[in-house]
Design a protein that fits this description.
The structure is a single chain. The chain is an alpha/beta fold and 330 residues long. The protein has 3 domains: 131 residues, 3-Layer(aba) Sandwich (Rossmann fold); 76 residues; 108 residues, N-(1-d-carboxylethyl)-l-norvaline Dehydrogenase, domain 2 (Orthogonal Bundle). Helices cover 58% and strands 9% of the residues. The protein contains 14 helices and 7 strands. It has a 7-stranded mixed sheet, with helices on both faces. Helix 13 runs antiparallel to helix 14. It is elongated, with a radius of gyration of 28 Å.
Amino acid sequence: MRQVPKYLIIGNGRLARHLAHYFSLLKVKSVAQWDRSQPVARLVELATGSSHILLAIKDDAIEPFIDAHLTDVAVCEHVKALNAGFAGMQANLSLQTVREMQGAMKFFIEHHGDKRQNLKPIAHVSKAIDALPGAGALGLRKLSEKMDVLKKGLRKNIKIHFSGSLVTRKAYGAHPLMTFGPELYTLEKYLAIPFVVDEKAPLFSDLLPGLHNPNVRLSEKQKAKYHALCVMAGNFSCILWQKLFDSLGEEFDIPPHTADMYLRQQTENLLTNYKGALTGPLARGDAKTIDVNIGALGGDPFQKIYEAFVEAYPSIKQQPQKRVRERKAS
């Protein structure tokens, strides 16, 4: 039987709240959450035994947080039960303590006996326990050695971060290609979110069991540029639309949402045919209108943004042709 995942979400920002809500919609029961308002002792308690730790915190805080709080919490309650049982036999090797150790082993097998790599070490430990108390001190020593082999082979908890750019050996990356607003989403929307996963991460079904989202792989070398492009497309375009809405309302005394249809149609055009969606003076090569636009933005910081697009556009326009030539040459 497949082990039921035990999730721990670290953080209390938008992403953390959306993740918690998504799990609740999926009716995933074993989900806990910790943030800085709670004591560190509570973090250790929750992290110990968690199979999947989700780090929904700032990119630059991920590695320091793991180093500070998550390096010594991999021992689960099932291993603790084995350790306690063994300590009991060391103190008093008797039929009663052996039975207690067998009970601890049964508890362990219920939660770790489904992994193929555990089967042989489990069999060796069980056999060594069954030989007690008759095997005496030598049997205890052999059991200790076999337990060490078993514990070393256990899979530690899986740590997952959601940064689109971070490359680290301390956690696997699974970047949701989505923007998360203050309002929570429907299950249908959450299920449709694509995840961009580190190339060397486990199978998605092992990385985030219970989630069935579309997912793709990305190499470590490509992550920084991938995320830069996501930021420009999603975040920078948001700043431009906010500028238009603010100016309509505050400068021109026009209701901001007068531009809603323009935004929706532009989005629809991009979704329908993104290569042919660009319109306006840049696409037409209308230098006169461009000059008027730039002049009208005098004293506005967005003038530099307009000028930067005008300067960059000739090279941008040539990129598809350049890629075609490079493919033909290769």
